[in-house]
Amino acid sequence: MVKQEHTGQRDLTYSRWHRTIGDSYYMIDIDSIEWRGNRGIVAFIETAFFNLNGKTEMWEAIERKNTEMLILDELSKLTGKPAYLVLHTPDLSTFWIFSITDGHTVFHSATDKEGYAQFIREL
Q1: Distance separating alpha carbons of residues 83 and 101, to the nearest angstrom
Q2: Residue 1 pLDDT exceeds 50
């Protein structure tokens, strides 16, 4: 089954078309490729909203990203660059950072906006 769009906050023209070519043809849009001019790619990051007051549990938000984690894990292995899943509150006040290893998440840290900015700077 092709995954549904959950956020409703992006242009779905290409995504909707791609879903018509068959269930076995997966595609994701990578949320972030961190790049530095002097070093090239330093990390792959998939992000998702997580509302602390919502009905979804954190494990459910992570589980919805299974396909993305498998793909980013493969990119990580091919390039030797780390891959992360980052859940954040809609207001960007809290970030939960997970490393992606062997297609699974490993909790890295929870932080605020400045802490996450520092994490990005240190990649």
Answers
A1: 8
A2: no
Residue 56 near residue 49 (C-beta atoms within 8 A): no
Q: What confidence tier does 7 reach under pLDDT thresholds 50, 70, 90?
A: low
Report pLDDT for 10. Answer: 67
84 membership: H or E segment, kind and range: strand 83-88
Model confidence, pTM: 0.83
Going by C-alpha positions, the residue among 85, 72, 9, 83 that lies closest to residue 46 is 85
The pair of structure tokens assigned to 15 is 């995504």
Phi, psi of 3 (to 5 degrees): -70, 145
How far apart CA 31 and CA 44 sit, in angstroms, is 8
Q: How far is CA 116 from CA 95, 99, 113, in A?
A: 7, 14, 5
In the chain, the N- to C-terminal Cα span, in Å, equals 35
| DSSP alpha helix (H) spans, 1-123 | 13-18, 58-63, 66-79, 113-121
Amino acid at 120: I
CA distance 30 to 79: 15
